[in-house]
Amino acid sequence: MRIKNLTSITFVAAGLLALASCSNNNTRTTIGDDGHLLWFNSLQMEAPATLGPTTLQIAQENIAKYWKSDRKVELKLNNEAVAELGTEGFEIDFSGANICASANSEVGLLYASYELLRLQETDELAAQNGKLTSVPAFERRVLNHWDNLDGTVERGFAGHSLWKWDEINADDVAANSNIYAEYASANASVGINGTVLNNVNANADILTEDYLLKVKALAEIFRPYGLKVYLSLNFAAPKHLANLETSDPLDNEVVAWWNAKVAEIYKLIPDFGGFLVKANSEGQSGPQDYGRTHADGANMIAKALEPFGGIVMWRAFVYDAQSPDRAKQAVEEFMPLDGQFADNVLIQIKNGPVDFQPREPFSPLFGQFEKTQAMVEVQITQEYLGHSNHLVFMHPMWKECLDSDTYERGEGSTVGAITEGKVMPYKYTAIAGVSNVGNDRNWCGHHFAQANWYAYGRMAWNPELSSEQIANEWLMQTFSKEKKFVDSVGKLMVASREACVKYEMPLGLHHTFKGPDHYGPGPWDRSIRPDWEPAYYHKAAADGLGFDRTMKGSGAVAQYHEPLKSLYNDVATCPENLILWFHHLPWDYKMKSGRTLWDELCLTFQSGINDARSFVDIWNSVEQYVDHQRFSDVKVRLERQAKDAIWWRDATIQYFQQFSGMALPDGCQPFQQKLEKLMKYRIGITNYENPKIETLPEYKLD
Ligand code: GCW
Fold this sequence. Notes:
binds 4-O-methyl-beta-D-glucopyranuronic acid, alpha/beta, four-stranded mixed beta sheet
């Protein structure tokens, strides 16, 4: 048993707990096998101390303790700044006898140390000669925690919040759990440099002094790792916290309150990153409550932050129940304000126009803004992609968005290029990922969900990296370097997102989930609002299926530049993987394969089932390369995923069959469960907690 990582009481206690929890299912385990070491597994990296070493010392220690090659590594701070390296970039010169890593800042050297260890652990060192220069594509690479102050996590599937607000010791920072330093080092190792600690559905109390002192403690633990703290604010905070009569952004007292609050924060946390704001969306308060615009609200906060270098990330996730097409609303609401936002405001836009569905086209707002800085928000937590029960490697989905060409300024104006500030000059660039981290021993619930945290950081630093590369390097560090293992599981990971699209909602279908958990099929589901009902999106009827967003329908295609507008508008040219997003088609519509829409739909679901089933076989074939505990944890979940795929198909296809009246085509397995039964079924997840896999319907794998 490896007990090298027992550096603190907390760690011992947690390790014993992990052992205890496994003792009754007869599994062999070691502390390293519970997944807690993340991608530091191959290094067996020790848990860092809560407080103590400086950034440079952490970088030096990384090399002193974990560098295995005979070639010495020198970490050198540049005497004179090298302009192209910026504040966080680094250069590693492999050409001499010693390897020389240089940067303009200590944090640049810290990133270089992690890069060297990554190259070492992925057997890439030998291939390096010359100089490797690495500079992050986005300046602010931020995690968004949807963690509530009561310890629950909205859309979190890995236990409770990491932040134990009741326990955080603000007076003696070093006395806090070293889990916070572990968290910070994990982020630094993949280049994440910011974290929003609390949910966008924000409790105003986070801005009270008691909480701010605890936030300060966390900021001090994170600081040596280059990780800045941000907070989500509640726009009505002046009313809630100071009993002001209004929170109107143009009211003098309100402005003075925010100015004072921001000054108070910077006194405690001089490098505070800024605020994330969800305003006038899903019941959150905002400037529109007072007849003001998003720009009025954002600029008031931005002005308070400006002297300190802070930014506002103002979300574009807005929609109201009355709209006939929710996908159009962000553009309709934000475009009239283009050019009105202060230059330390970024509009944070979800990758797609609706809501983190398994596949959406990119949000057209990215291509519309001419004078407003935009940033992408992706969701690392798998709200709509099987929670922490399903193995879905999300990187292909995010990269699909970043690589999408908006054609805003002709070819090449991709979402990535725009938000990196390459198309129009940006003062700030940023990207956000909604975190999947909780207090589960393995951080993310599913061992493979760690790969999504890892991939997000790697992508935010370098969006050019391919999904294969990220998956493979993660596997080598987290599980095994065996070629057979990496080849087969790497392919599985890269295929997993498309598999999920196929078994959940293929061909551009979206939002056919059961609410409010968003786990499992529920195309029949009802809600208090029409736009929260699946029928709003799939529009299944006797005449066909899909949302008509063409110029004859909602006209959403017009929010895209040519040639996309025409391409999406014409059913003959619309990509088939989005066809039901943009078109309402008869059940017997002829697809490119020559099959009817109905047959294609059924067979695509079946193909998703087959993929999910094959993942179980692939995993079984690599058993010898994986420790017992993680092997069985993943196996149980992969089997659940394969069964869920059948459940999804059974429910969705039988429901649509009521309208199509058509039979399952050849090549489809028969249904296992009847629609009536599935429609009665509720999994009843409360508080968005882990859906406990055994509570789902019974399915058999062949
Ligand atoms: O995806 C939806 C979720 C909400 C979430 C909201 C948002 C934080 O279902 O749980 O609230 O989006 O992004 O604001």
